[in-house]
Amino acid sequence: MHELKIGLLGCGIVGKGVANILIQNQQLIQSRAGIRLTLKTVADIDTESGRGIPLDEGVFITDAFKVVDDPEIDVVVELIGGKTIARELILKAVDNGKHVVTANKALIAEHGNEMFQKALEKGVEIAYEASVGGCMPIIKTLRESLIGNHIHSMTGILNGTCNYILSKITDTGISFEEALGNAQAIGFAEADPTLDVEGFDTAHKLTILSSIAYGMALNLKDIYTEGITRITPMDIEFARQFGYRIKLLAISKNNGDSVDARVHPAMISDSNLLSNVNGSLNAVAVTGDAAGDIVLYGHGAGMMPTASAVISDLADIARNRLSGIKNRIPPLSFQPDHIKTLPIMPIDEISTHYYCRFSAVDSPGVLSKISGILGQYGISIKSVHQKGRKTKGSVPVVMLTHLAKEADIQRALAEIDGIDVVNEKTVIIRIAEEEELE
User: What is the pLDDT of residue 57?
Assistant: First the structure.
């Protein structure tokens, strides 16, 4: 009987899901893959509870390095997380000639170039479908289904925590802090939510997708990243009145000689499919020259959705082994000698539409002062909205702009925020019009 022996590093939420699928659906997987997937060893700091997984005595151990050094293990599944010990274990496994499956998007985004090169040298695979989008097969889609397409652009909602928080504020009008607390109470947000709410998790995922789509080396450091902590119920209500919804978007466009890749809150039309992706769900819209527009939608995290993606990678490795094939699909889709270094546009160079909310003194001449400064920087105002509601002696003044350059907006707002009729730092939210997402 053909068999693939698996060593699992980390048996937390996702690890438990992987173990349960391997055990409960073993016959189903074998009937599809043509090879038996056997969970041989599980390394975790807790070897006593067993996590409710029906495994033989001795399967649980505490030493992860024994797993990567075990000559009987064919594939190591890394679900520890982090970028230190996980990286060391993966490189050690690769050195020992073992395939690796991981869901570690931060590690791939920051150290993937090094790890993939090492894997190619050793003739093994590092598979990472679970690192982006959970059960949404976005990596497989880009690497396989869309192989004949020039990918023009991608726009995604890639963090369930942020999407849940923004959906909660939109539906109930509660504050960011209240929505975050709600998300933490039901397990949708970590005790320290910084990676999620500041946009870093989304940036990791966008780094990976951009590299696969455009054949470029992984480049996290140049992706502009902005989170959702300054979004208020007032901004969401204004957006609703203008026919928009606010989402944390991962935006990526191929300009040929450069890439526009950024993460930030954005207003999108309420008629756009992505605006109706709510709760903790994820979605990615991809535009290719042959396929046109496609949208993938599903659970981007959680025990079973993420575990499902891990199993998909294990099955691919099993099939390749059964056929005597190695590295059938290059790690980043393109052949290694075709991976190029494409610059990522600085955020200052992009042009888009803007929502600007000023906290202004309720006195004559305020609008003319603000609009005058905007005009000095070549920023054309599309519409002005002033509400009677006051906060701390100020009234909100909202201006929507025509297409403007980010650098000009930032210079104008730095000057506006310094004048005596503006009491607080101006809130700006970029508006992703339909034509800009293509």
Answer: 83
If one counts every other C-beta atom within 10 angstroms of the C-beta of residue 370, the result is 25
d(CA 387, CA 399): 12
Statement to judge: residues 307 and 291 lie in one domain: no
Are 397 and 413 in a shared domain? yes
Q: Is pLDDT above 90 for 51?
A: no
Q: How confident is the model at residue 48 (pLDDT cuts 50, 70, 90)?
A: confident
Please report how many Cα atoms fall inside a 13 Å half-sphere around the Cα of residue 350, on the Cβ side: 25
**205 counts as catalytic:** yes
Please pick, among 16, 105, 168, 205, the residue that the annotation labels catalytic: 205
Q: pLDDT grade, residue 388 (50/70/90)?
A: low
Give the CATH number for residue 422. 3.30.70.260
Q: Which regions of 255-393 does DSSP assign to beta strands (E)?
A: 259-269, 281-288, 292-299, 351-361, 381-386
Residue 62 gets which letter from DSSP? S
Asked if residue 438 is part of any domain, the answer here is: no
Q: How far apart are CA 31 and CA 82, in angstroms?
A: 35
Task: Give the structural domain span for 406.
Answer: 347-432
Instruction: Return the DSSP state at 142.
Output: I
437 within domain boundaries:
no
Shared domain for 127 and 209, answered yes or no, is no
CB 90 within 8 A of CB 100: yes
314 and 239 part of one domain? no
405-432 pLDDT, tens digit per residue, is 999 999 999 999 999 889 999 999 999 9
pLDDT band for position 437 (cuts 50, 70, 90): low
